[in-house]
Amino acid sequence: MSVEGTQMTRDIAASALAGEFALRARLGTQVVLDLYECETGHLDDIAWVKETLVEAARAAGATVVETVFHKFATCGISGVVVIAESHLAIHIWPEHRYAAVDVFTCGESVQINVATALLAREFRSKRPVQRRFTRGDDVAAAVV
C-alpha cells in the first residue's frame, strides 16, 4: 500500500471513530410518543395515569425522584415524572382519545423503548407514533 493509501485509510478510520464518539457524546435522548385512538377508559383518571407513568419509568430502569400531576377542570391531565436521569411527561386530551408523551433521558441506563411500549399497551393506543431525537449533539461535539 502506498503512503497516500495508508494516510487515506487512517483518515477514514479517524473520521469513523470521531463520528462514533460524537454519537456516544450526546447529552441525551428524547422520544416523543403520540398515542392516538386510545381505548382505555382511564384517560381522565389522574391516579391511574400517574401510576401508569411511574410504572413505565420503573420498568425502563429509571429512578423516580418526584411526580407532579394536574387534572383540568373540564377534562384532561398533564403530568411529569421526574427521574434521576431526566423526565417522563404526558398531556392528555380525553375528548380526542389522545395522549402526548415525552421521555427524555441522559445516559444509556434507561430503556426508553420499554417505557414507550408499556405506555402504548396500557393506554391501548390503536395508533402509537414514536419519534426519537438525540439532544445536545453540538454541545457534546464542542467539548471534544
Account of the protein in words:
The chain is an alpha+beta fold. It contains 4 helices and 6 strands, in the order H-E-H-E-E-E-E-H-E-H. It has one domain (27-136): S-adenosylmethionine decarboxylase. It has helices at 3-24, 46-59, 112-122, 137-143, and strands spanning 28-38, 64-71, 77-83, 86-93, 98-105, 125-135.
Q: Judging by the overall fold, what is the CATH architecture?
A: 4-Layer Sandwich
Instruction: Please bin the fraction of helical residues.
Output: 25-40%
Distance, first to last CA = 32 Å
Shape: globular
At the fourth level of CATH, the homologous superfamily is S-adenosylmethionine decarboxylase
Structural class: alpha+beta
Number of strands: 6
Assembly classification:
single chain
**SS strand fraction:** 35-45%
Q: How many separate domains make up the residues?
A: 1
CATH structural fold name: S-adenosylmethionine decarboxylase
Spatial extent as radius of gyration: 20 Å
**What's the arrangement of strands in the largest beta sheet?**
2-3-4-5-1-6
Order of helices and strands: HEHEEEEHEH
Give the averaged pLDDT, no decimals. Answer: 87
Question: What is the level 1 CATH name?
Answer: Alpha Beta
Q: Tally the helices: what do you get?
A: 4
Low-confidence stretches: 16-23
Biggest pleated-sheet summary: 6 strands, antiparallel
Task: Detail the topology: elements first, then pairings.
Blueprint: H1 3-24, E1 28-38, H2 46-59, E2 64-71, E3 77-83, E4 86-93, E5 98-105, H3 112-122, E6 125-135, H4 137-143
Antiparallel strand pairs: 1-5, 1-6, 2-3, 3-4, 4-5
Helix pairs in contact: 2-3
